[in-house]
Amino acid sequence: MNIVHVILDYLLIFGIGSLHGLGLTGAAIAMILARIYGFVRLLIISQRIPSIALKLSDLRLVWGLALSMIKFAIPAMVERLSMRLGQVIYFGLIVRMGTEVYATHNIAGNLTTFSSTIGGGFAVAASSLIGQAIGEKNQTDVQEYRKWSYIQSAISMTLVTAFLALGIKYLRLIKQFFICYLSSY
Q1: Please, is 26 exposed, middle or buried when counting C-beta atoms within 10 Å of its C-beta (0-12, 13-18, 19+)?
Q2: Distance (Å, whole) CA 33 – CA 5
Q3: Phi/psi of residue 23, nearest 5 degrees
Q4: Distance between CA 160 and CA 120 in Å, rounded?
Q5: Cα angle for residues 173, 175, 181 (degrees, 5° grid)
Q6: Tens of each residue's pLDDT in the chain, 185 residues
């Protein structure tokens, strides 16, 4: 999906040949088309695996299950929406500081994703393993999975952050490259 997204971005933002670029509108269209492509591809591939293939009978509503999911989904949804609203306000303040500050903020945000993605991976693994241990009523494993997920994610995230911090010299070179490249447009 990412390759399709990059290709469509280039074609629809900048254009090619007699096809004129659409700028920001092209970026939005490219994203939508790439996500549709990813969904269709996932649907087709999942149909080849019988245990996860979607059947029409799977689409019937099971009220008890739906209500229990909604009970957990609403607080999570409110938390996510609150966080996004805060980010919109925060980004608005950053944009007012100028394009260079905004670009620097985005680059730094992308770099921190390297570290936080590791934590997210450990969180998913821990949630799955802890859920299984709770289902088996094995409190010892619950505590061990919790403890080791904290330790391993903290060490891994710290190492990645340290690696990025030590590589800051090279990041300045990358920043200069993008500033020079973008100023030529």
Answers
A1: buried
A2: 8
A3: 65, -130
A4: 14
A5: 100
A6: 789 999 999 999 998 888 888 999 999 999 999 999 999 999 899 888 888 888 878 888 889 888 988 988 999 999 999 999 999 999 899 999 998 888 888 888 887 888 889 888 999 999 999 999 999 999 999 999 999 999 999 999 999 888 877 777 676 776 777 677 666 55
Q: 164 and 115 in contact (C-beta within 8 Å)?
A: yes
CA distance 164 to 101: 20
Instruction: Note whether 2 and 9 are within 8 A (CB).
Output: no
Look at residues 118, 117, 113, 110 and name the one whose alpha carbon lies nearest to residue 174.
Answer: 110
Q: What pTM was estimated for this model as a whole?
A: 0.49
